[in-house]
Amino acid sequence: MDDKLKNPRRNRVKKLSADDCWPVMIEFLLSQKSWWVAMCAEFDLTPMQGHAVRSIDPEKPVPMSALAEELACDASNITGIVDKLEARGLAARRADETDRRIKVLVLTDKGRHLREKLWARTMETPRAVTALPEETRRRLAEALSAVLEERLAEEAAKR
Amino acid sequence: MDDKLKNPRRNRVKKLSADDCWPVMIEFLLSQKSWWVAMCAEFDLTPMQGHAVRSIDPEKPVPMSALAEELACDASNITGIVDKLEARGLAARRADETDRRIKVLVLTDKGRHLREKLWARTMETPRAVTALPEETRRRLAEALSAVLEERLAEEAAKR
DNA sequence: GATAAAGATTGAAGTTGTCAATTATTAAGT
DNA sequence: ACTTAATAATTGACAACTTCAATCTTTATC
């Protein structure tokens, strides 16, 4: 009776309507549970370490608190995550010049190198996407981008 | 220089091409990190408990091992997760009739009720999606669905 | 009937999450 | 200036999730 819960598209018809948009997005989100985990595991990074490496701008040191916000987690988590990056020689803490409470993070050469490899790997388009017609991919990019734009606009409006 | 890593769309132009498809999908995936967590939290469920509730078909008991596969985790995790669902009176273990090694899971009335509320909440389309033109939503549904279809076809081909 | 395999559980160790408390430093109020 | 806030980072306690190895029961296989 209610098998749509397990798989919203199980009984879908060929032609989809605008009402199918969110259900399909849900299925996509739920099915991609371990994608980033696997991506990071290839470089012996935990998911959060991967996010940290991704978020540390090689050009500009980032305060711990800024990283916590970027990773949407408590500041206390960042300490341990950065400890491990530092232990592996991927990142380093430095004192902020103007405010001594702040510790900023920088990537080491090793960290920068890993960051580039991680992102190159991440950006490898999966076959399930390249297999699609160019026009379909272009539309998907446009539509999904529109959702992200809209969400950004909403968040901006809250402030 | 390499700020695309942090946000692939930071410097994007208005017109997107097929090559932007995967980068945009990545951004969408990474930005939705805590969506399911928040969804489950509204019903005092942990993310995995939520997945379990979602995956237990009310019509058909599911073996622990099948749940482990569905949730893409080790069988040993399921024990603890189901323990808590059982403690809350949402699910129950039953012996399989044909194979006494197997324990199958069923939802209680309370569990079924919660499952319906959870899914109803999950299916509430966010404003960022409803705000889009109908044609955009329809195209997004079609394109994303095509990716999922393609991936299913790939997985099927592996066997 | 002995051995192997499968299903579920347990225990140990590591990662991630929240929360409260602590320390050091800066900002604000009077 | 001096006390009081507030901020940045850390620490410790505890729960959730993950993997892995080991165990136990039950079924399959030879």
Question: SSE layout and pairings?
Answer:
Two copies of one chain form a homodimer.
Chain A: H1 21-31, H2 35-41, H3 47-55, E1 62-63, H4 64-70, H5 75-87, E2 91-95, E3 103-107, H6 109-122, H7 127-130, H8 134-157
Antiparallel strand pairs in A: 1-3, 2-3
Helix pairs in contact in A: 3-5, 4-5
The structure holds a DNA duplex (30 and 30 nucleotides).
Give me some keywords for this one:
159 residues; 8 helices; 3 strands; globular; three-stranded antiparallel β-sheet; homodimer; mainly alpha; DNA-binding
Task: Tell me the radius of gyration of chain A.
Answer: 20 Å
SSE series of chain A: HHHEHHEEHHH
Query: In percent terms, what proportion of residues of chain A is strand?
Result: 5-15%
> How many DSSP E strands of chain A?
3
| End-to-end Cα distance of chain A | 43 Å
- Strand-pairing-aware structural class of chain A: mainly alpha
Record the strand order, biggest sheet of chain A: 1-3-2
Largest β-sheet summary of chain A: 3 strands, antiparallel
Q: What quaternary form is this?
A: homodimer
Helix percentage of chain A = 55-70%
The gross shape of chain A turns out to be globular
* Mean pLDDT figure of chain A: 90
Poorly predicted runs of chain A:
9-13
Largest interface: A-B, 65 and 65 residues
Number of helices of chain A: 8
